[in-house]
Amino acid sequence: MDPKFALQELEKSGKDGLTAHDLIDLKVTGGLTYNDFLILPGYINFPADHVSLETKVTRNIALKAPFLSSPMDTVTETNMAITMALLGGIGILHNNCTADEQAAMVRTVKKFENGFITDPVVLGAQHKIKDVLEIKRKLGFAGIPITDNGKLGGKLIGIVTNRDIGFCEDTNVELSTVMTKEVVTAKLGVTLAEANQILRSSKKGKLPIVDAQGNLVSLVSRSDLLKNRDYPWASKHPQTKQLLVGAAIGTRPADRERLAKLVDAGLDLVVIDSSQGNSSFQIDMIKHIKATYGNKIDVLAGNVVTRDQAANLIAAGADGLRIGMGSGSICITQEVMAVGRPQGTGVYQVSQFARKFGIPTVADGGISNVGHIAKALSLGASCVMMGSLLAGTNEAPGEYFFLDGKRLKKYRGMGSLDAMERNDSDNSGSQARYFSESDKVKVAQGVTGAVVDKGSIKQFVPYLITGLQHSLQDMGVPHLSELWNMVDSGQVRFERRSAAAQIEGGVHDLFSFEKRLYN
Ligand code: IMP
């Protein structure tokens, strides 16, 4: 045949591979998960770094990178949430703690970086150096304005910085004796650009903003300027410019009070954390949130793996759905409960259904490499949620320890006995996720383990981003937002992978090798 008829011939004989719909054909294949299939290569006519990963996590919350960190007490506290948001994703603070502790975490994230810090930490002249040191230990900064009543809104009388307390050995000394009294300030109404200029020319770290009477109204921080420069993808609230943050709650009556505190602290996204989300408790909670807060916060409901479950939560008012039951690395739900679904099938079925209503989905659990992220997104998820992949990073809670010469961090399921026992006193958090608060015998649905040190997510998440951009480029998909249309129209093609093909697709036939993933 004449080579110039190659394209016509292709048209006649049909495209290679399967559509996503044919891939996830339940009657033929049963449930599938990420390793069971591959995506066939497409046509490249754009560079990888032009691939936009912009997406939505819920109806009203957009992200530049499709990543969430799991609400687990070995994954997401303030440090993880701040850094995830700086890098373009969002962190979901766990609820295996009291409501006040969780609200304090929300507050810390919201305060971390913004143009004007509208709720700065303030002390009075009678406070001691040790109070500043305690704030520094908890929140990581020491530039604190001093007012006559020790509160925001009081008359500004000084400022205490690292320089003022650095050489003082007696931590009981009152701040009145060490604070700097000549403070460079700016008047209320100053623009951020002007405030930044004043900071630059005065070479100060903090610029208190005062009203006409000299009362403190807010603060601008030089380190925020530097951070702003470094994180162009940061997930920020469009008006306040504060970092976005999510937090998990349960479905008990006490969780309504918890949520009120979280919203008061500035929460953007609430995640109703349940291993099986299709319950009257969750539906009531969604309705309560929508009736009480309207569009002030978005609700990520779940978890679900079937369209039937999804339909109930969508009808109740969910703004996004979290998909996964039994796919987590620490999870024994499928083994113990006999209930769950292979993650690939769950993501496809729920996402296809949810898209009809404009509801984004989050593929939660079982993500262990960049390829899994690309596959979850190609099956229809708008974002992925990661636990084990992030648990070994510097930003995850907990200390590193050594075992057999390896540097490790603890990682545990929220349904492990270990996690469920953490809060027997107030019955909050992880027990409720598994409906086991009132059980005499606690049935574990997760394990406790350890993961290898991964360094900082400041290097790891950019690796995930670049890896994902290259993956989409290989598929011939110029932007994440076009991926779903290209999958639906049958342009992006898939293929099942036999057990032998899976072995072939991994490293094989080597005596030894070193697997370094990025530099
Ligand atoms: P990973 O990313 O594979 O480690 O999975 C993390 C996800 O597992 C979380 O986001 C939760 O949805 C889920 N998960 C957390 N703790 C447990 C547990 O104890 N049992 C079952 N699933 C869990």
TrEMBL record:
Activity control: Mycophenolic acid (MPA) is a non-competitive inhibitor that prevents formation of the closed enzyme conformation by binding to the same site as the amobile flap. In contrast, mizoribine monophosphate (MZP) is a competitive inhibitor that induces the closed conformation. MPA is a potent inhibitor of mammalian IMPDHs but a poor inhibitor of the bacterial enzymes. MZP is a more potent inhibitor of bacterial IMPDH.
Protein name, UniProt field: Inosine-5'-monophosphate dehydrogenase
Location, primary (coarse class): cytoplasm
Function: Catalyzes the conversion of inosine 5'-phosphate (IMP) to xanthosine 5'-phosphate (XMP), the first committed and rate-limiting step in the de novo synthesis of guanine nucleotides, and therefore plays an important role in the regulation of cell growth.
Binding site for K(+): 326, 328, 331
Gene Ontology cellular-component terms listed: cytoplasm
A Pfam family of this chain: CBS
Listed GO biological process terms: GMP biosynthetic process; GTP biosynthetic process
GO molecular function, one term: nucleotide binding
Subcellular location: Cytoplasm
UniProt cross-references to SMART domains, sorted A to Z: CBS, IMPDH
Main EC class the enzyme belongs to: oxidoreductase
Family label: Belongs to the IMPDH/GMPR family.
Superkingdom of the organism of origin: Eukaryota
Catalytic activity field: IMP + NAD(+) + H2O = XMP + NADH + H(+)
Gene3D superfamilies linked: Aldolase class I
SUPFAM superfamilies, sorted: CBS-domain pair, Inosine monophosphate dehydrogenase (IMPDH)
Oligomer and partners: Homotetramer. Seems to be able to form heterotetramers composed from more than 1 of the 3 IMPDH gene products (IMD2-4).
